[in-house]
Amino acid sequence: MYLDLLHALPEVLSFTNFAAVIIGVIAGIVVGAMPGLSATMAISVLVPFTFGLEPLVALGLMAGIYNGAMYGGAIPAVLLRIPGTPAAVATTFDGYPMAQKGEGGFALQVAVVSSSIGGVASAFALMLLAPPLSKVTLLFGPSEVFWVAVFGLASIIFLLGGSAIKGLISACFGVFVSVIGSDPIFGTDRFTFGQLELLDGINIVILLVGLYALPPVIDLLEVPLKTDGVSSSKLGTEPLWRALPRMTRFWKTWIRSSIIGIWIGILPGAGGSMAAFISYNEARRASKTPDTWGKGEPEGVAAAETANNADTASALIPALTLGIPGTAVAAVMLGGLLIHGLQPGPMLFRDNPDIVFGFMWQFLFGAILLVLVGGSLATNSFARLLNLPRPLLGSVIIVLMLIGVYSIHSRMFDVYLMLGFGAIGYVMDKLNFPLPPVVLGLILGGFAEENLRLALRIGRGDWTILFANVTSLVLVALTVAVVVGPMIKRHFDKKREAGGEV
Amino acid sequence: MKEILAALTITGFAAAPAFAEFPDKPIKIVVGYSAGGGTDVIARTVAQFLEKELGDGASVIVKNIPGAGGQIGFTEVAKAAPDGYTLGTFNLPAALALTKDRSADYDVNSFTYLANFVEDSNTVVVSASSEFKTLEELLALAKKNPGAVTFGLSSLGGNDHFAANMLADASKADFTLVPFKGAAMARTALLGGHVAAGTMALSQTTSFKDEIRVLAVLSDERSPFRPDVPTAKELGYDVEMSSLRGIVGPAGMDADLTGKLRDVLNVVNKNPDFQKAMADQGNPMAFIAGDAFADLARKQDGVAQAIWDKSPWK
């Protein structure tokens, strides 16, 4: 198989196939940077056009877009507190405070380097370990996946510091939104009020754009004409080679976050946002100065961005070997493969090694190109967006939001829904309710429900099926640790304080 | 049977179509699912060849209107003007099963049935490492210990569900049905040993020849893709179920127009390049045109109704 890998290389390096990756990366960064447009959308628009293209050109474009968009999402997250893609939510935690401190340029450089490192690690995992890692996916049946979702939900409650009650309320709102639509087993309508548009549930992009993009835009417009501008010196932009030495101290975070991202990627359905959240949480727990997190700690940006790119190629492991996409983007990519007669499964690796392994190389090159293309593109052009007059910037973003949301299903219903979430988001923002738990509540709530019910059906109503094997028990232990750990730590901290006073 | 039908449609083709000017604007094929899905790929392949066969600068575009399990797209076609410029993909039995378990703005009579292209028969499968070597062994346990055999499906109210239901009826066995989100998830759970057995369309098994053991195929004759696998009928259980994908228009289309479209679709089907493209995508072909397609839809509607009446799934 490793021979096949080398055999596929020359074809990838041919001019058109390589150019496809470069064009894909650039397009991906642009799409990712626009609030409302996501990689999923860009690739679904692309898929019909790939009919007439050579397979590797089509796949190269997709690999490039995927890698580019995962970094592109960080640009508005850092500069405007608007995550360009769902996976960039965790990037706003420290990226935006950095930008406010005048370190926006450095934040973007950290993001691009981390994204690239995560992407390269993920591509290597895909190239070298796809068959063994697909065995790991098989270990995760409904009850195990249920525990993964619970673990994810539990860790976010303690992720944000601040008021745990408010965090919990936000998470519950997210879980409530996940309940809307037809139920995952019987298809019974829930809270749809007879609207067919609500039957499939609420698309995460609609919620994200409404909740995250509208409130900052309103903020932006509340203080109009205050165009103090952001000069490049204020952005803190310096050449990448000079910024690099300041990043080397993140090496532990890079390794940890890459592993987390790859692991989340091979689990069906969880996706980049969960990878970024968990990785951010773990990095903060490991940090010696957890108090600086959320106030502009570059390592936080590194953790989030490494993980959300580390799940790109690894999400293709279950997609290519088992036909189950780890993320929404991987699902669309499977369609792109199908158009060229490439059906996922073990036979794919035997029948079309040149294309499959070529695709993997393209992922690797896409990740490397990210630094070269993204580094200059982001700091030299996108960062200057902030120099635009505020009314202009605000209206451009609103137009992009409307176009993006409309184009998901080509219907106005979604746009109204998005505006509704925008109003909710604005109120939540003003009342200091954290927004990230809403996003994760929506993603993981539905995921937890579906898998819990499947597990109970398999167990014929017997709850012990949830604890029936080692994988489940390990996940239960991790969940307990993530909930109880901070409590015990707080308890001991208090004791130590009390002891000191005596 | 299918050959006779094909021969009949060819005879129809010999008579010169009256609608010489059709089409004078783009024809739209509505797909009720997202771009890149199995049905979408079929629609795009048909569109590409249809455009060529219509000739004279004709243009055929595919429009994806995903949502509500395809229902939004099917409704769009049913309500369109019957002028031949709005066609749609039609998935049986899914499209008609939807009309049983929720309110729908269409039924089996809302369409003009033009041509079916794909028939993907259901199979009964276990993992290659399973203790069950034959259908008989599997059914024996399901009879002896009702509910002990967990049976993975892609969803309730689709061909997988109907197949499991019909097999249970025919054999007096009792399965615990586990509806996953899609066939790939059901297949993965089967491979991981999380469910004991399952049913899925034959095309879902082809890329997993060494990993999945196909115990029986639910069609009236053995599949050319897997001639080694017996049919359920041979084993004594008269169960047939499949997933069909074809092209329909709204009801009330003019007879000449209907004839012309059926003829052109027939020519598309005859094209070896088309056959090759469809085979590369793993689609088992079964070209059924005109009235036979309409009869098939009515029969499927009856099956869905009967199952819904007997054991409603929600």
TrEMBL record, chain A:
This is C4-dicarboxylate ABC transporter permease. It holds the Pfam family TctA. Keywords: Membrane, Transmembrane, Transmembrane helix. Residues 19-440 form the DUF112 domain. The keyword tRNA processing does not apply. InterPro entries: DUF112_TM. The chain crosses the membrane at residues 12-33, 45-66, 106-129, 136-161, 167-186, 198-218, 254-278, 315-339, 359-379, 391-409, 463-488. It comes from the Bacteria.
Automatic annotation (TrEMBL), chain B:
It comes from the Bacteria. Belongs to the UPF0065 (bug) family. This is Tripartite tricarboxylate transporter substrate-binding protein. The lineage of its organism: Bacteria, Pseudomonadati, Pseudomonadota, Alphaproteobacteria, Hyphomicrobiales.
